[in-house]
Design brief:
This protein is an alpha/beta fold. The strands form three sheets. A seven-stranded mixed sheet has the order 6-5-4-1-2-3-12, with helices on both faces. Strand 2, helix 2 and strand 3 form a beta-alpha-beta unit. Helix 1 crosses helix 8 and helix 6 crosses helix 9.
Length: about 400
């Protein structure tokens, strides 16, 4: 953003790892808060994850400063307690009992700073499950999301860590709400978000739908469609496109654009309810007609018809998407040897501010391990000799070349 960041002036200590915690942290950071990532002396293990998880660290840790502290030692815990004195928010997503053993729990830190907002992100909120460990995939299975995503008998997790991200977003909502309450009361508080409850919130409409139909909702691949045309089609050149006609106007324009005059006024296809009933015979014929055309021609006709449509893309193609490139929606982010190495356009926070429609920007590349330790400790009142002694004792660490 070219104007002042809306959360400028807020100080956040980020104990997050993997996705849910760092996701909350990057939301605060992108919106202007000073976010200090507190990681182990040898670095957040997320930096070293392979395969599907290889991009997690670079994506969720931009715009943050880093200090690497040995929290198992009293001297390391003392550093955190000192940093907490003027912090507004602490966030963590450790498993049950871990943060208590590190002497950095809500009960420990509220004594240091009663105005602190403490955001705890867990697998489950208060209840019989609260001491269980959890992962995104666990709660996708438990909540029914995986059941709804895969075909009958084959539950399938979503293709992105949607629950981790949603849990982080809800955590930020809770923390900002607590800050607003602090404006009124002068006191901080502990707030929590969770994976399981985030997933159940997402599925609420399906709970209601099951009650309406008098039984469990079928998985999405076996569902009875709510619209007559709402499907993926393969073009003659192998490209794929989703087309959705969700109103009578869509249907009429769709038929006009594709030259389906015989269907436009067919009484069997007048009204969405009739088109849904006709899917058994209509859809195979629609596929036959559409798949004779190349992808670009299909897309052009859909644009003319002003229906809902999209080619079926891959995530790697987002980094060169012309819409994102044109509107500040991609942040040129270092993905290895932070501060150097290749840059990848990572999607920005999906919000705009003001008449200028400013987007949150990239102010800092993802940090090296402990990259900002000296400035963070100096601002907290540590002298240069004290910092040198702590470094020599291994209380905090610095690594210039920790990989993504």
């Amino acid at each position: 953003m070219t104007s002042a960041k809306p959360l400028a002036g807020l100080k956040v200590l980020d104990f997050g790892h993997t996705i849910m915690g760092p996701c909350a942290g990057v939301l605060f950071a992108d919106l202007g808060a000073d976010v200090v990532k507190i990681e182990p002396v040898d670095g957040d293990p997320t930096r070293r994850l392979p395969g599907f998880a290889a991009g997690f660290f670079a994506t969720y840790n931009r715009n943050k400063r880093s200090i690497a502290i040995d929290l198992k030692r009293e001297e390391g815990q003392a550093i955190v307690h000192r940093l907490v004195r003027d912090a507004d928010i602490v966030l963590e997503n450790f498993g049950p009992g871990t943060i208590e053993r590190l002497k950095c729990s809500w009960d420990d830190l509220r004594k240091v700073n009663p105005r602190l907002v403490y955001l705890s992100m867990k697998g489950f909120l208060k209840g019989p499950y609260e001491n269980r460990g959890a992962l995104d995939e666990v709660v996708q299975m438990q909540s029914g999301l995986a059941y709804m995503t895969g075909p009958p008998g084959r539950p399938l997790r979503a293709g992105a860590p949607v629950i981790d991200i949603l849990g982080g977003v809800f955590g930020v909502v809770a923390a900002l709400s607590a800050l607003r309450e602090r404006d009124l009361t002068g006191m901080g508080q502990k707030v929590s978000s969770s994976l399981f409850e985030s997933a159940t919130f997402m599925l609420g409409a399906l709970v209601v739908g099951s009650a309406v139909i008098g039984g469990p909702m079928p998985p999405m691949p076996a569902r009875k469609n709510a619209w007559g045309v709402y499907d993926v089609f393969t073009a003659s050149d192998g490209g794929q496109v989703f087309i959705g006609c969700t109103s009578d106007g869509h249907w009429q324009r769709f038929c006009d654009a594709f030259g389906f005059g015989d269907w436009r006024d067919d009484p069997r296809l007048l009204g969405n309810a009739n088109r849904c009933e006709a899917r058994e015979w209509m859809l195979p014929e629609l596929e036959r007609r559409i798949t004779r055309l190349p992808l670009e021609e299909i897309l052009a006709k859909c644009e003319t018809a002003r229906v809902a449509y999209s080619r079926v893309g891959r995530p790697d193609e987002l980094s060169v998407d012309p819409h994102l490139l044109a509107n500040g929606g991609l942040l040129a982010t270092a993905i290895a040897g932070f501060g150097g190495g290749p840059l990848v356009g990572i999607p920005a926070l999906p919000v705009e501010f003001g008449d200028a429609r400013d987007r949150p920007s990239l102010e800092r590349q993802p940090p090296r391990v402990g990259e900002h330790a000296d400035e963070i400790l100096g601002a907290a009142g540590y002298s240069a000799p004290e910092i040198a002694d702590l470094r020599a004792a291994g209380i905090f660490g610095v690594s210039a070349n920790m990989p993504a």
